[in-house]
Specification:
11 helices, mainly alpha, Rhopdopsin 7-helix transmembrane proteins
């Protein structure tokens, strides 16, 4: 039984339609996504290098930011190269194993990013609400645990979802109306009842979204109360500025996720789903390093020193 299932899946292929319904836009889209991916790679790897080179940035906040940059780089690299390939070649097929691996890796990194942003919110909460205890509360050991937890939970979620996904039955060529092997698109072409797999991902996604948002909103509620109690306007401005970049990243990330949940997967809405998916999987990994670098004096100072510009 197991051997016959393996033989079946080895012959299964998926065809990622992507944006093939717009043949005239293939070259412009390729150039746009190639530019975005180049900026993403340079921006995220550059952020990691800057944090490593500047000893002033060896703090918990930048420790989390370096891991966020790593996750964004990996997430984008799982999705974008295949998207670029499908815009360049006519054969848009991907093997069953390739599709499942792409889903598994993308799932690991998106769940990791969800809780990495929550860990960063907790870090800001401790820094602003309990500054005297910050070095103790955010010790290297605690920071390592707060980073290890998102990676571990991302791996657990991804393994669980992938296990129930590979148990589904597929045959022959399957056309996926998307540019990435995401769960709903794979389940849509399954020959078996996907109820269990759909329920598992619904419960998992709902839990991840609600729990991470509870951590973030609770942290920022306390941060806001603490800031409003500050006597000086300068102190308030400085406290708000340290949170601005993180709040911007959270708003874009979770706003896009919630938007995707709200869009029904009907034929008329597939283009909207694809556009939102592009923003979610391709654009956001590029935006995060830009958001943090443009609003951060220490990062900009390090960049200026590296390129030899006098301050």
């Amino acid at each position: 039984m197991i051997l016959s299932q393996e033989n079946q899946t080895s012959k299964v292929t998926f065809v990622l339609l992507g944006f093939s319904e717009y043949p005239d836009l293939q070259v412009p889209l390729f150039l746009v996504f190639l530019t975005i991916y180049t900026i993403t790679v340079l921006g995220n790897l550059g952020m990691i290098a800057i944090i490593k080179l500047n000893h002033k940035l060896h703090t918990p906040m930048y420790f989390f930011l370096s891991h966020l940059s790593f996750v964004d780089f990996c997430y984008s690299s799982v999705v974008t190269p295949k998207l670029l390939e499908n815009l360049f070649v006519e054969d848009r097929s991907i093997s069953f194993a390739g599709c499942i691996i792409q889903f598994f890796c993308a799932c690991v990194f998106v769940v990791t990013e969800t809780f990495m942003l929550a860990a960063m919110a907790y870090d800001r909460f401790v820094a602003i609400c309990n500054p005297l205890l910050y070095t103790v509360a955010m010790s290297p050991k605690v920071c390592a645990l707060l980073v290890a937890a998102p990676y571990s939970w991302g791996l657990v979620c991804s393994l669980t979802l992938t296990y129930f996904l590979v148990r589904l039955s597929f045959r022959g060529n399957n056309v996926i109306n998307n540019f990435v092997c995401e769960h709903a698109a794979i389940v849509a072409v399954s020959r078996s009842d996907p109820y269990v797999s759909q329920m598992i991902i619904l419960v998992s996604a709902t839990f991840n979204e609600i729990s991470s948002l509870v951590i973030i909103l609770t942290s920022y509620a306390f941060i806001f109360i603490t800031i409003m109690k500050m006597p000086s306007t300068g102190g308030r401005r400085k406290a708000f500025s340290t949170c601005a970049s993180h709040l911007t990243a959270i708003t874009i990330f979770h706003g896009t996720i919630l938007f995707l949940y709200c869009v029904p997967t009907t034929k008329s809405s597939w283009l909207m789903v694809k556009v939102a998916s592009v923003f979610y999987t391709v654009v956001i990994p590029m935006l995060n390093p830009l958001i943090y670098s443009l609003r951060n004096k220490d990062v900009k100072e390090t960049v200026r020193k590296l390129v030899g510009i006098k301050l």
